[in-house]
Amino acid sequence: MTVTVETGLWQLDPTASAVAVRHKTFWGLVTVKGTFTGVTGRGEVSADGTATGTLVLDAASLDTKNKKRDEHLRSAHFFDVANHPEITFAVRGAERGTGDAVQVDGQLTVRGVSRPQQVTARLVPADADGLTLEAEFTVVREEFGITLNQMGMMGGPTTVTATLRFIRAAA
Questions:
Q1: What is the radius of gyration, based on Cα positions, of the chain?
Q2: Domain span holding position 147
Q3: In what residue span(s) does the Lipid/polyisoprenoid-binding YceI-like domain sit (predicted)?
Q4: How many structural domains is the chain composed of?
Q5: Model pTM?
Q6: What angle do CA 154, 17, 59 make, to 5 degrees?
């Protein structure tokens, strides 16, 4: 499938977008899932087809359907939202690959710690009104200073999945 993406500014549509995480706990026996309900972003596609942009997650908006766990994830043990209210993914460059693949080179910032992050996204149907990117990648939380791991219960990477719908930004 070949999809043409128009140049210009694009705004994330938060009502049609979702960013979720899943992480195995209790020595891999239980998978905790959560969704960030506060997601914003924008991007720009250049004439040469490359793109840049920023995705911002409200760290306090992570909802795992367990109030006590969510409060703990907001604490200094995990996201430390009092000092670091946002998680950002700054896209330094994105280029079309083969088929519907988009190679994304970015920088993920969690708890004030930034690390390079490469992601292969998938461009799903796009038209003059909007485009949608889907991606899944893993993050090693210890690289961002999230090191609490009582009795080895929470080791391993966290998987992030994103469906991001962008619409033309108002001129």
A1: 17
A2: 8-161
A3: 9-167
A4: 1
A5: 0.86
A6: 45
CATH code for position 97? 2.40.128.110
Structure tokens that stand for 150 in this block: 């009582």
Structure tokens at 127: 């038209």
- The answer to the question of residue 128 being in a domain is yes
Question: What is the distance between the alpha carbons of residues 63 and 89, in angstroms, rounded to a whole number?
Answer: 19
Is residue 29, in this structure, part of any structural domain at all? yes
Q: What one-letter code names the amino acid at 36?
A: F
Q: What are phi and psi of 129, to 5 degrees?
A: -90, -25
In the chain, the amino acid numbered 152 is G
Of 34, 30, 76, 85, the residue nearest 57 (C-alpha):
85
Residue-wise pLDDT tens digits, 78-92? 889 999 999 999 999
Residue 43 falls within a domain, yes or no?
yes
Q: What is the pLDDT of residues 34-92, one digit of tens each?
A: 999 999 999 998 988 889 999 999 999 999 999 998 998 898 888 899 999 999 999 99
